[in-house]
Amino acid sequence: MAAKVIKPVRSGVVAPPPARARKIAASEPVSAKKRPGKTKKPLAPERVAAILDALAKAYPNAVCALTHTSAWELVVATALSAQSTDVRVNMVTPVLFKRFPTPKDLAAAPLPEIEKIIHSTGFFRAKAKNIQGAAKAVVERFGGKVPQTIEELITLPGVARKTANVVLGSWFKIASGVVVDTHVLRISRRLELTTHDEPVKVEQDLIKILPQEQWIDYSHRVIYHGRQVCVARKPRCADCSLETLCNSGDKTWSSH
Ligand code: SF4
Predict the structure, then answer these.
(1) Would you say 59 and 220 are in contact if contact means Cβ atoms under 8 Å apart?
(2) Strand, coil or helix: what is 22?
(3) What are phi and psi of 151, to 5 degrees?
(4) Are 178 and 204 a contacting pair, CB within 8 Å?
(5) What is the position in ligand 1's atom list of the atom closest to the CA of 250?
(6) Domain range enclosing 181
(7) Residue 222 lies in a domain
(8) What's the pLDDT at 17?
């Protein structure tokens, strides 16, 4: 009997059973019959628990990738990360915080100087205005300290729920909501944990089905997964530790 060929997988991920595995060729249209179907009960507690378990095993140490040493720095870094990359933001923020270390310094800074420093993150005029507005608000209304409630945080210029949840979760370790960025939105949909495509509605769905103690880690881990495996185009399903739990219609490889 011929020996089974086991596909090489990255360390830390589970190999799907090779005998039943099939590759879905990107060049060939996949008929509706062959496409993985919908999951019968996608929100069943045991399925949700299995997804959380697989994510925890694959990314046990996932944390926020934005460099920061205080809640204030994380507010600014998150605001700058919109339409940019964490790598780019991590190149800009050390320069910005060396020049203007505190909210008070940034509130009094010449706007063109802020714009020049953050230019490469894109949308630099709006971002400069927002982070300076947030600095003024923190100084004038919160005594120079970043507030610790979502209701107060979202009153800062340029701070919406996503940024507020990042700051509360990553710095203060307060699970007030679930961070929904582009990765969390895409992967939560692929895993059928939501059918919505608006971040606020996706967050509402996730809050209902995820245990609150998992809200912070879920986002961190899914963001890692979205960067490394479940990428937007051609997800690397053959390397995915959630593959046996996933019936997404755009899988590139399936064991079931
Ligand atoms: S199996 Fe594919 S589509 Fe599903 S979560 Fe994994 S990488 Fe994403």
Answers:
(1) yes
(2) strand
(3) -60, -40
(4) no
(5) 3
(6) 41-61+176-249
(7) yes
(8) 41
| Percent of the chain residues past pLDDT 70, beyond the cut | 86
Indicate if the pLDDT at residue 2 is higher than 50: no
Assign residue 202 the CATH number of its domain: 1.10.1670.10
Please give the single-letter amino acid code of residue 232: A
pLDDT at 37: 72
Instruction: Give distance in angstroms: CA of 29 to centre of ligand 1.
Output: 18
**Active site positions, annotated:** 162, 181
In short, whether 242's Cβ falls inside 6 Å of ligand 1 is: yes
What pLDDT, in 10s, does the model give residues 33-73? 456 678 889 999 999 999 999 999 999 999 999 999 999 99
Residues 128 and 136: beta-carbon distance below 8 Å: no
The CB of 246 under 6 Å from ligand 1? The reply is yes
Instruction: Based on the fold, state whether residues 56 and 95 are members of the same structural domain.
Output: no
Give me 94's structure tokens.
């050390």
Residue with CA closest to ligand 1 atom 2? 237
**Per the domain annotation, does 66 fall within a domain?**
no
Same domain, 185 and 208: yes
pLDDT in tens, 62-83: 999 999 999 999 999 999 999 9
